[in-house]
Amino acid sequence: MSTLTEWAYPLAESLLAEPLPRRWRHCLGVAERARTIALILDQDADLLEAAAVLHDIGYAPDLAKTGFHPLDGARYLRDVADADEQVVNLVAHHSCSWLEADARGLRAELDGEFPRESEPLNDALCYCDMNTTPDGMPTNPVDRINEITGRYGPDSLIGTFIRRAEPEILASTSRVLERVAAKRQPM
C-alpha cells in the first residue's frame, strides 16, 4: 500500500525542483521538521509530512493563478492531483494563510473552498514551516519571521501579514513544543 509521502514527494519535486530549487529545498526541510515531531501525530505523521513537502507548490509557475500560493496549491491538489482532502486543506491554510487571505481579499474563497483541519495538525504544519529557512535549514520562528519581513519589506503585503500572524505563529509553535515535551515524559 502506497503512503501519502510516497505520492507527495515526486509530485512536489516535479513542480518545484527545476523552476524553483530554493523553494524545493525549503519544502524538503519542512518535511524533515515534520519527521522530527512525528511522535505527537501518531497515525497522522504521514499526512503531515505529505502536506509539508507540498505546502508551497502554489509558487510553481504553472500553478500560480491568483498569486496567493496556499490557494493556488490547494486548488491544484484538489482539482488536478486528486489529493487527500486533509492534505489539500492543510496546504490551503498553512502558516496562518487565512490572515494573508484577508489582506488579499481572498478570505471568503479560501474558507469557502477549504475547511481548516484540527488545531494540532495546523499547528504542526505551521511549526514545521516557521522552523525552516528558505534553504531548508533549521531555524526558529522569530528568526524566520524576521527573515520574511526583511525579504519582502516591512510595509509590503507579506511583511504586514507575517507581523500580524506572529502571535499565532508563536502560539502554534509553543503548543507543538508542549505536545512534544508531554509525549517524551515517562509514564
Automatic annotation (TrEMBL):
Pfam families attached to this UniProt entry: HD
InterPro entries registered for this protein in UniProt: HD/PDEase_dom (IPR003607), HD_domain (IPR006674), HDIG_dom (IPR006675)
Highest taxon above the source species: Bacteria
Listed SUPFAM superfamilies: HD-domain/PDEase-like (SSF109604)
Residue ranges annotated for the HD domain, each copy included: 23-109
Protein name, per record: HD domain-containing protein
Organism: Streptomyces purpurascens
